[in-house]
Design a protein that fits this description.
The protein contains 17 helices and 15 strands. An 8-stranded mixed sheet has the order 10-11-9-12-6-13-14-15, sandwiched between helices. The chain has a 5-stranded parallel sheet with strand order 2-1-3-4-5, sandwiched between helices. A two-stranded antiparallel ribbon has the order 7-8. Helix 5 crosses helix 16 and helix 9 runs parallel beside helix 10. Helix content is about 35%, strand content about 15%. It is an alpha/beta fold. Strand 10 and strand 11 form a beta hairpin.
C-alpha cells in the first residue's frame, strides 16, 4: 500500500512555496496540507528569513508539536554555525537555496525511509504481549528506590536471557573509581554504530551478548537532573534519553538505541540528563514517544522515576503497566508516600489506583508494623524487601548490583522474589491497590496535617512547571504550530 506523506510548507516568499510545490508534485508519496486543517502535518519545510530568533522559536514549537514528524529548513545562508544550530534545534535536513533537485530528492527519500522504520518499530506493530514498562518511585530520597529499580532491571535482563547473577566471569563494576565520572559524561565512550539488529551496543560486553543479539531489558533513569543509575552500575555514558526526547523528528529504533550504554548483564541503560541540559525543552509528549518506542524494542523497561509526581513522571506512570512506590517504615518516608499518593490521585485517579506499595528495609525493629503502614497509606503492601543496609551500600560503592554483589543477602533474595512476581509472563497481581475499609488515624494526622490545615503542597520537582492534569491520557504541555506565514 502506497502511503502519501503529508507535507506542510511554511515559507516567507511565494516563489519558494511555488518551487517546493512543483518539486513535490513530481515525487510520488507526498501531499500538501495546511496547518490549520490537518491533524497530521508530517514533514514541515520552514524557510528561514532575516529574523532568525523568531524562526528558531518556530522551529522549537514545530519539533515539540505532536502533529509534526520532522522539520526541514530552507535558507539562502550557508553559514556552518547556522546549520549546526538548526540541527541541534531538532531540524532533520538543511536545504540550501536556490534548491538543487538532487539534494531535495535525497532529503525526501531519507524522510520516507525514516518514517518506514518508525512504523515498523511502533507499538502498534508489536505483539499484543509485547514490552512492559515498570515505573519505580521513592516516597522520598534515600529509601532505596534506585536500588530496587537497578536490581529489578538487571534481574529481568538475566532472567530473559537465561543467565543468572554470577554467570559472568568478570563483573561490570570496578569499585569506587566510578565516582570520578559523576560530574559529566565520557565523550570518548566507544560505540559500534550498526544497522537494525545490532545497533549502537557499547563495547566491552560479554561474548554471550554479541552485537547482533536483540536486547531484552532496558533501564531508564528519569530522575532529573542527573540520576544515580550510572553510579550504581559503575557505567560511563556520553548521551542520554533526553537527546531523543528533544529530537522527535529523528527518533527511531536506531537513534534511541544509540543513546543507551550496554551493561554486562545485557541490560541497556539510558542515563538521565544533567543540570547542564535544557530540561524545560523536554515535553510530556516527547517522554511518551520515547517510552512508546522503548516498549516496542524491549521486553521490559524499568523506569527509575524518583520521588516525584510532576508532569513528566505522570506520563511515565500512565504508560506503565506496573507502578511501584518504595518506602520504608520510618515516619518521614511514610509521610512522603502519603503525599505522593494524594498528589497522583488528585490529577490522575486511574493511575493512583494502580500504584503498588513496596516496603524496603523491612525490620521488626522499625517501630511501625505493616498493618499500621497499610492503614496510614490506605492500601495493601505488595512486597517487602529485607533489611540489609550494609550489603546494599557495599554494592553501590563497588558499582555492582546487589543481586550480584551479595546474591545470598536477605535483601537480594527479596528482590529476586519481587522480580519473579513482575516477570513478563506472570499474570498481573491483584493484591495491590487500596485496602478496603482502611482509614488514616491519629498517627497519619500527626505526620501530615498542621493545626487548622488539611492540605499540603504537591510533592513535585522544583522545575517551575505548572501542575499537569489528566486529559485523554496525556498531560498538556508546549505550544503547537501557530500557522503558516505568507
Amino acid at each position: 500500500m502506497n502511503i502519501a506523506h503529508p507535507v506542510c510548507l511554511v515559507t516567507k516568499r511565494l516563489a519558494t512555496r511555488e518551487e517546493l510545490t512543483r518539486v513535490l508534485a513530481r515525487q510520488d508519496g507526498f501531499r500538501l496540507v495546511s496547518p490549520g486543517e490537518a491533524d497530521d502535518l508530517g514533514l514541515v519545510i520552514l524557510e528561514l528569513g532575516e529574523d532568525m530568533e523568531d524562526d528558531f522559536e518556530s522551529i522549537a514549537s514545530l519539533v515539540s508539536d505532536p502533529r509534526v514528524g520532522e522539520v526541514f529548513v530552507a535558507s539562502r545562508q550557508k553559514d556552518p554555525d547556522l546549520i549546526i544550530r538548526a540541527m541541534r534545534a531538532g531540524v532533520s535536513e538543511f536545504l540550501s537555496q536556490p534548491f538543487r533537485s538532487d539534494e531535495v530528492l535525497a532529503a525526501l527519500e531519507g524522510y520516507t525511509r525514516r518514517r518506514r522504520t518508525a512504523r515498523a518499530a511502533s507499538p502498534a506493530a508489536a505483539p499484543a504481549a509485547g514490552g512492559r514498562i515498570i515505573h519505580v518511585m521513592g516516597a522520598k530520597g534515600g529509601v532505596g528506590a534506585t536500588t530496587v529499580a537497578v536490581n529489578l532491571a538487571v534481574l529481568a535482563a538475566r532472567s530473559l536471557s537465561g543467565k543468572m547473577p554470577g554467570d559472568d566471569a568478570a563483573k561490570s563494576g570496578k569499585g569506587l573509581h566510578g565516582l570520578n565520572g559523576l560530574g559529566g559524561r565520557n565523550g570518548a565512550a566507544a560505540r559500534d554504530m550498526q544497522d537494525m539488529g545490532g545497533m549502537a551496543l557499547a563495547s566491552g560486553g560479554p561474548a554471550a551478548f554479541a552485537p547482533a543479539a536483540l536486547p531484552l531489558a532496558a533501564l531508564m533513569d528519569m530522575r532529573l537532573p542527573q540520576g544515580d543509575v550510572p553510579l550504581f552500575l559503575d557505567m560511563e555514558y556520553s548521551r542520554t534519553w533526553a537527546d531523543g526526547a528533544r529530537n522527535l523528528g529523528r527518533l527511531d529504533a536506531t537513534f534511541l538505541r544509540s543513546l543507551a550504554e550496554r551493561h554486562a548483564s545485557g541490560l541497556e541503560v539510558f542515563a538521565s540528563p544533567d543540570a547542564g541540559d535544557d530540561l524545560d525543552a523536554i515535553s510530556p509528549r516527547a517522554v511518551k514517544a520515547v517510552l512508546d518506542l522503548a516498549r516496542a524494542l524491549y521486553a521490559v523497561t524499568v523506569v527509575d522515576g524518583g520521588p516525584y509526581a510532576d508532569e513528566l513522571a505522570l506520563v511515565s506512570m500512565q504508560e506503565a503497566e506496573t507502578i511501584l512506590l518504595v518506602t520504608d517504615l520510618a515516619l518521614p518516608a511514610l509521610a512522603g508516600a502519603r503525599r505522593l499518593l494524594d498528589d497522583v490521585a488528585a490529577v490522575a485517579p486511574s493511575v493512583a489506583a494502580r500504584i503498588q506499595l513496596v516496603v524496603n528495609r523491612m525490620s521488626a525493629q522499625a517501630g511501625v508494623d505493616l498493618t499500621e503502614a497499610e492503614r496510614l497509606l490506605e492500601r495493601k503492601v505488595f512486597a517487602t524487601v529485607g533489611d540489609d543496609y550494609g550489603a546494599a551500600v557495599a554494592a553501590i560503592n563497588q558499582g555492582v548490583p546487589l543481586c550480584e554483589a551479595a546474591p545470598r543477602s536477605v535483601a537480594a533474595r527479596s528482590l529476586a522474589k519481587l522480580a519473579e512476581r513482575l516477570a513478563p509472563a506472570a499474570p498481573a497481581s491483584g493484591n495491590g491497590g487500596a485496602a478496603p475499609g482502611m482509614k488514616a488515624g491519629g498517627l497519619f494526622a500527626r505526620l501530615l496535617h498542621r493545626k487548622g490545615h488539611d492540605t499540603h503542597e504537591p510533592n513535585r520537582r522544583e522545575s517551575g512547571r505548572e501542575p499537569g492534569r489528566e486529559r485523554d491520557g496525556l498531560l498538556p504541555h508546549g505550544a503547537l504550530l501557530q500557522g503558516a506565514r505568507g
